[in-house]
Amino acid sequence: MRRALTVLAASAVLVSSAVVMSQPAQAAAAGTGGPVAPTAFGMHVPSIAQGTAPVAPYGAVRLWDSGVAWGQVEQANGKYWWNGLDAAIATANQQNAKILYVLGSTPTWAASNKKQGTYPYKGAASMPSMKVWKAWVNAVTTRYADSIESYQIWNEANLSTFWQGTPKQMADLTSAAAKIIRKNDPTAKIVAASSTVRLQSAYKKFFPKYLKELKKAKWPVDAIAVHLYPSGTGTPADRANYINQVKSDMKKAKVPASKQLWDTEINYGIAGPGSTPHTTIDGGQAAAYVAQTYLDDLRLGVERAYWYFQTPSSPLVGIQMAAGSAGALGYQTVQSWLNGSYFSCTTGAVNTCQLGDYAAPQVIAWASSGSAPFTVPANVVRACDATANCVPATPGTTVTIGSMPTWFGTAAAWS
Questions:
Q1: Around Cβ 372, how many Cβ atoms within 10 Å?
Q2: CA dist., res. 404 & res. 23, Å (int)
Q3: How confident is the model at residue 415, as a pLDDT?
Q4: Chain segment 84-102, per-residue pLDDT in tens
Q5: Domain 1-35+342-415 is found in CATH 1.10.10
Q6: Hey, what CATH topology would domain 37-339 get?
Q7: Sheet of 31-33, strand order
């Protein structure tokens, strides 16, 4: 663990027993790699152009809902208002956060049908002309080649709110943008248009076809992007099921193994689909959900997750990411556990991620559903949960692990 956490009162999650029990049977390792990069921990910061500081450390920021969309920058054909994007990029650079910039959506003046889409302006979901699109991508990548790390083609292209063209048209925009980006900034990452997963009919209608068209274009992207929001009453376990569905679809489409999977928007408790209500998630549950999100990324092979979003308070999302919030504490805690670590994760009644070795073990354990017994590893002296509550731990004893991720480690790892 890379940062010391405050030792607090004993957590109810950790109930020791003098009887040594066997750890539940585990499946084969599902995720192995590292070191975990700071960019694994992404964030949306709507007011970043105003110099907003992070409420929790993050390594990557996605510029969306930040007042710097295409039509807010290019306010008339060939006439650019760069001030907002300049300010957002300057702030991100000061915070050492890598920038993911969303190139779409279509400005009103460039829309082929101004009735298609209303956010962030009329016509935003309409197909632009290829000439106008290429000119825009060239202008952005020429100006910011030294500052923007990654470019995402479009936001939630499987939803009519954001895109009313075809999967092939989106693939055409992707391929055209990729050629320009590669020319102007060969080191930049190109991220596919994102698709939401929880709206299954819209996902199934768009995502497999988009992958098919990207294959025809010889995979002009470095990462495939999805938004893994579960339903308004959903949990990280539901998100994990979506990850497996996406990976299955990627396998069917024969996406090359070199292409990463990114979750470019995630939160919980958002109302829908249909009549599913909004859910407020706070306290230990909020910290646990945030920590599980980033642990599941390691376990299931998601390279980045961009939390939506840093704001003092929003009725839209279930978990608030504000200074002093339980969500921010969970985000900071899981980052302190994982950042810079090599890992080997397994899936079972208790999921685990091994970060250390036998002499200086660091193990994180959590259950996707329910609870199960877990044997404290050898040489461990302390256990801390995602709310930074810490207690002494005794090797060989048994604790009950539930949805609250718990870190087990040594004194050396603690320092």
A1: 17
A2: 17
A3: 53
A4: 999 999 999 999 999 999 9
A5: no
A6: TIM Barrel (3.20.20)
A7: 31-33, 343-346, 351-354, 362-366, 406-409, 382-385, 390-392
